[in-house]
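Schema walk-through. Below, the input block comes first and the output block second. Nothing else is stored per chain. Lengths vary across the set, and this one has 209 residues.
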Amino acid sequence: MPAFAAPTTLSGTHVRLEPLHASHAADLQEAVRDGELWQLWYTAIPSPEGMAAEIERRLAMQAQGSMCPFAVIDPASGCAVGMTTYMNIDAAHRRVEIGSTWYRRSVQRTPLNTEAKRLLLTHAFEHLNCIAVEFRTHFFNHQSRRAIERLGAKLDGVLRSHQINTHALSAGALRDTCVYSIIASEWPNVRAHLDFQLSRSDPKDTRSC
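--- output ---
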């Protein structure tokens, strides 16, 4: 029986999402150095040295059916510039979380992220027939929270003392997790909102790695 969220390639104008593979490691090691993203204390992003292990971890979770990981590809350069996933996959209730996402600094706040979410949400609601798609982020990750809210997701609540931080700068501190979601009945309006945002973006927007 095929997995509920089987590996697939999702393509747009500004981004291509393709099944994560060990061959993406070199690009992703370079990408994470752009902004030294692993130093951010309020999120969990692999270091260059830990990239291969992180890819292996995500692929192991895919084999267990709980995650469908993607490499985020910049079509202009053909380089992997980040990672994203369907995670906490609940096939019985047709729910997924979009998370474990990061992009190199040079492509943050560009149409790439908006279109990546548009592709993931389209696939979730229109192909997987999801009843809801969830997003979770650290209470103090204000950039992530603003980006999720710009998508049209609504805050379901805050899980207080949800996790124990492991980052060296905050080891042992307790994380409050903000939980957002988009439900199926909201998808048509969210889709129109994202399409409007993308229609205003520069079609010549290019990046390099």
